[in-house]
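Hi P.,

Sorry for the delay on this. The queue was packed all week, but I finally got your sequence through. Input first:
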Amino acid sequence: MTVIETGCAKTASTMAAGTAAQELQLKRGEFAIAVHMGLVRVLVQQGGGGRARVRREEVDRLRAQAGFPETLRGQVRTVGTAEGARLLGISPDRFTKLARAGCLTPITFYLNRYRAVVWLYLAEELSGFAAREPCLLVGRSPAWVRSRLEGGADCRAREWRSRRIERLLSLTEEPWARAAVLADTLDPVQFAEVVEDPYERAYLARIRSETVYGPTVSPAARETMARLMQADEPDEMLWRRVGLILELDNAREARQAPRPGDGWRPRPGPGRDPGPEVENERGRDPEPDPGNGIEPASEPGPGAGLERGGGTKPGAEPGPGLVSVPEPAPASGPGPAPEPALTFVRGSDRTGDQDPAPGHPPTTVPEPARGLLARLGLRRHPSRRPR
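Then the structure:
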């Protein structure tokens, strides 16, 4: 079920998120959790030009449910460590150990006065956990729990991150938006390794998911959320890199990332559906700037024609990094064949030992597509065989 609808509904039939929270008798944080869990469907203006709104019909539907508002508020009720331990009938220390071992998944967090992360859990999920795993609440902890804790594991951030990523991916079918969600899970170095095109990196950074509902978070909380969204264990990093590569392949098949001069609108390929428009937030074309991750296009230099197999002037010597490749000349009747002319190409452009086709100057051979392991950084790029 899609919980975020896209469209341009009339303002009279919708209301702001804050107004909807008041009518549903929810606090702002509770309303954000309700949207995150899919209990409340919100409407996002097409193009991302406005804040999220809620249809009047959606509010009326929730208010008409049996047990309103206690039932709805009970579904989004959160508790901390102390209250959660009382709910499970265990000590706060045992509750923390279970959460660190990955038995309990946080739903959200907040920063205390010392800017330390305080995790919150759904009370309804804790009650379900007590009914499913009573053996974890009494007696000695299992061996796998003890081994995780002795190794210094803390799965709270990872469990929260997995839940949030799964939820964000379920909210959209747009390939580039899905890739942007997974791009948030990698640090800048790994992100640049997976996404080599600077224009794709700039586009993914622009459309990265933002909170479209709930209260406006502070800069400190936004910075903390960005840090917690990044994978911090080798196996998770590898898994997120694989997911990002797969989503990028789907996105590139649908349409290319916008380039300067495109107006930040997708340019569909032949026979493809152009899909929804994606526009620049500032309404104008971005200027290529080395400081924003976009490399400006360089003008072709004096040796540009050499890389395209355009040949050189007679008697010219090969420059640095260039090797001579004989170019066969067409036959001109009986008699010894003339000396073949020399055409200079860059040695780094040779990917094999195949000779150029007769009658055509040698051109740059495109690099073969790299496998998944090479794109993950686990295998070197295909080496080029020397002559």
